Write the structure tokens for this entry.
Amino acid sequence: MKRTGASGSAVHDPVMELEGITVRKSRGLLLDDVSLRVSRNEFVGIIGPNGAGKTTLLNVIAGFERFEGALRLFGRRESRKRTRETQLRIGYVPQLFPIDPAFPILAAEAVMTGAVGRLGFFRRSGEAEREKAMRLMEMMRMAHLADSPLGQLSGGERQKVSLARAILQEPDILLMDEPTANLDIAVQREVLILINELHRRENMTFLFVTHDFTMLPAAMRRAVLLDRGRVVFDGDVSGALSSETLSGLFRYPIELFERNGRRYVSYD
Ligand SMILES: Nc1ncnc2c1ncn2[C@@H]1O[C@H](COP(=O)(O)OP(=O)(O)OP(=O)(O)O)[C@@H](O)[C@H]1O
Ligand SMILES: [Mg+2]
């Protein structure tokens, strides 16, 4: 395994430490001895093909999956059960945002639920929170959807609601599972810019899951490649993005090349 120390100076302040994390099901191992140390303010990409275990890894960190091995969050040993305090410090944008189309909630209200944890369920969110939510929705070009019933939104629009909700939570760790997968190319770019901006401004740690290595946020410096439940690479993004590494990971001939400082990919 290659490790180039992409985490830089922040390495002394780990917010997340995984040691020998294994997830076992009757069919086999979904995660196989995964060790990972992530420092405050790092932006880590988790990249791998379908079924590699990326969502399972986020679920372990978020407390939705039983596991073997040691997990420490904010310096504290954790099992699957979490205190509410720890839970509030972890934001999660799931790969699928399941909602009941009949559930009577408007898009803006759904975004506002992100603040519920911080403010308490019975305390009405103040004007400041509401303004924050609206500003965020404007930035994400979704302000016009504020009064739309959530159940009537398109897949991409729901994805944006889910992301805005997690951002409003103001977590210390933000787990994002393919947050741009359902977005059209223009919105995808905007959301990536927003994510970059957020990372620059706030003191947050990001884990960003994707199988699309052609659309990586610029702030992502470190890549962890997952293959069949195992970490096969952990280091600088540029090191992960070689034609050989990616072809091996995706078991498909992939050619990467650069033009005018931008990276392009070509495959048959
Ligand atoms: N509850 C479960 N029981 C048994 N197998 C499971 C369970 N959940 C997931 N799996 C399997 O574990 C593997 C890893 O699943 P996971 O969802 O973590 O993959 P992924 O890397 O997120 O893939 P994708 O890119 O398709 O989202 C898959 O082969 C999946 O079928
Ligand atoms: Mg997944």
About this structure: Residues 185-201 form the longest helix (17 residues).
